[in-house]
Design brief:
The protein is built from eleven helices and five strands, in the order αββαβααββααααααα. It has helices at about 10-15, 30-45, 55-65, 65-80, 100-120, 125-140, 145-160, 165-175, 180-185, 190-205, 210-240; strands at about 15-20, 25-30, 55, 85, 90-95. It has a three-stranded antiparallel β-sheet with strand order 3-5-4. A two-stranded antiparallel sheet has the order 1-2. A hairpin with a 3-residue loop joins strand 4 and strand 5.
Length: about 250
């Protein structure tokens, strides 16, 4: 997609199509979806740094769309936590917080390896096969879908522990930290590393190596935290001096 201009809504509906997985049918991307994809990529890559004002009139002209799909796109990105909509002020790229991200990972580090150790002895081949299928789907997933699939994978690995309260806490943490995960998955080498580590976890569980799986997951979370917090710090350093958190 041309990053400097998008097709008009009519042209987008007519020509922006992609094959649906496992089907010969074509799925049309609307102008709203095209704008969402473009702005999301700019935010996650740091082209639009935290705190940046999103001037709708200028963006509509640059992207070649009307204000209507742009407003819809802003609302959608706000629901993802990427954009702040402020009454009487407009839209701004949401601020990041290294302290918030660090806290999410600190709690995950204390809960998830324990959950995996408890789950591994009760894990059957059906769960492991499902987990491998999710990893395969993650290989081709858009950044906007990767976090959801990542949670599906981890949930499959933790559910046999039969610790519903802990699983609920971890689920909430994954939902809150999805924005930060997206900064990780737009980087192809990091994404490949995550795949390798996920498959290693599945392999250790398959062979009943619960303690080794626990240790591997601890390292997986530590490295993910270092990568993501490093990206967040860089984005904050490159921002335009707007108030920062963390």
């Amino acid at each position: 997609m041309n990053s400097s201009a998008l097709k008009t809504p009519e042209a987008a509906d007519a020509s922006a199509r992609e094959p649906a997985a496992g089907s010969s049918r074509l799925v049309r991307k609307t102008a709203v979806e095209l704008v969402v994809d473009e702005l999301r990529q700019r935010i996650l890559s740091g082209t639009l740094p935290p705190g940046s004002a999103l001037r709708q009139e200028a963006l509509a002209e640059e992207l070649g769309v009307s204000r209507i799909p742009l407003r819809e796109a802003m609302r959608f990105l706000s629901s993802e936590g990427l954009v702040d909509l402020q009454p009487h002020r407009g839209a701004f790229v949401s601020m990041l917080s290294t302290a918030e991200a660090q806290e999410f990972f600190d709690i995950r580090l204390r809960l998830e390896p324990w959950l995996l150790r408890e789950a591994a002895p009760a894990m059957g081949e059906a769960e492991l096969a499902q987990a491998e299928a999710v990893v395969t789907r993650m290989d081709v997933a858009e950044a906007s879908d990767w976090g959801r699939l990542n949670w599906q994978l981890h949930e499959l690995l933790y559910r046999p522990a039969q610790r519903p309260a802990a699983l609920g806490i971890v689920r909430a943490l994954h939902e809150k930290s999805e924005r930060y995960l997206r900064f990780q998955v737009v980087n192809a080498p990091i994404r490949q590393q995550a795949r390798t580590e996920h498959m290693a976890l599945i392999g250790l569980c398959r062979h009943g190596q619960a303690e080794q799986a626990q240790a591997a997951l601890e390292q997986h979370i530590i490295e993910a935290a270092e990568q993501i917090i490093g990206i967040v710090r860089r984005l904050l350093d490159e921002s335009d001096g707007s108030p920062r958190h963390g």
